Amino acid sequence: MEDRYTYVIVGAGLTGVSAVEGIREVGSDSTILLIGREEDLPYDRPPLSKSLWLGKKQVDEIHLRDRSFFGDKGVDLQLGAEVSALDAKAKTIGTSGGATCRYDKLLLATGGQPRRLDVPGGDLPALFYYRTLADYTRIREQAAAGKSAIVVGGGFIGSEMAAALHSNGVQVTMVYGGPYLVDRVCPADLGRALQADYVSRGITVHAEDVPVAFKDRDGRVAMTTKSGQEIEADFAIVGIGIQPETTLAERAGLEIGNGVVVDEFQRTSEATILAAGDVAAFPYEALGGRMRIEHWDHALHHGKQAGKNMAGADEAYTYMPYFFSDLFEFGYEAVGEVDSRLSVVADWQEEHKTGVLYYLADDMVRGVMLCNVWEKVGEARALIRAAKKVKPEELMGAIK
What we know:
Blueprint: E1 3-10, H1 14-26, E2 32-36, H2 51-54, H3 67-72, E3 75-79, E4 83-87, E5 92-95, E6 100-108, E7 112-114, E8 127-129, H4 133-142, E9 148-152, H5 156-167, E10 171-176, H6 188-200, E11 204-207, E12 211-217, E13 220-225, E14 230-233, E15 235-238, E16 242-244, H7 247-251, E17 260-261, E18 273-275, E19 280-284, E20 289-291, H8 296-310, E21 322-327, E22 330-336, E23 343-350, E24 354-361, E25 364-371, H9 377-386
Helix pairs in contact: 1-8
């Protein structure tokens, strides 16, 4: 006999756990299966490139909930299980272990998988595609003071991991294709200032360059770049973004477009299947377009709203998620469309260290980055929602 659940949640990360909380906010008389491929209890991902490396948290402090939480909520938690089949018409899932179960409604909270390098040697054992707690544990064993590491990628994960490793006494060499650090969100002057700070600390930077091959050299990694650089290190970390994990959705015949396409209620093209978090391409109400967001705050709120909607709340997702990063002493919070291709107006208190960046399109504020300016995300959201045309001089001092 097949098991049957009122709600099945595929993906046991922050989105999935938040969905459980959303379901239980609406009602308690239902059965829930939360199933995830990782063996570890659900955990927060930001500490993997931040506080775990700085000694601010230990591994046992990053779990989202202890095991008793799931029992108290009436959740069947199945970890280390891979969902390999989804039949939207029959409303069933199947696992790689051969088990099947039926559902009334299902949530895809499958997140994403690290983008991989399609180059010779791209699968070497000492080459880590950084994403999970298991990855952290393996790298932590190698990242002793005096060791050397190559970090491929100059975006969020690459820049954070380079800082984290350097702070632990690892000699770091960065290689990335962009002209400067975090070039997708930072305007050129800020990105180059951050890059110069990394170099001043002893991090070697090869910008506008990419790996073309890796070789194993007595257990170490030898990398060749497009420009002809030959770089050797004890290990390498690749952080070049993620691909939304849409395999199940594709097999079920759901609409795909830069992720699983959902409406404002997180419903996919199949009404009994919802999707949320990193994998979902959703209508961003405040910005008036469809987006896919890979940040912690979005996973938290999108997941919870999806859970509430599975249980019948029927509420549109209108929240504006923020994101954050810490690069040595430069920390920031940002909200909205923070894209370096937009027109950027800077209001610095101390140039490239403390201040506010406003990202404009058609003379309207679309995004805000708060650089070492704290507890102002609410004001930034209000400014974006206002959707008023502004002159650059009107933004000076708008957020302090």
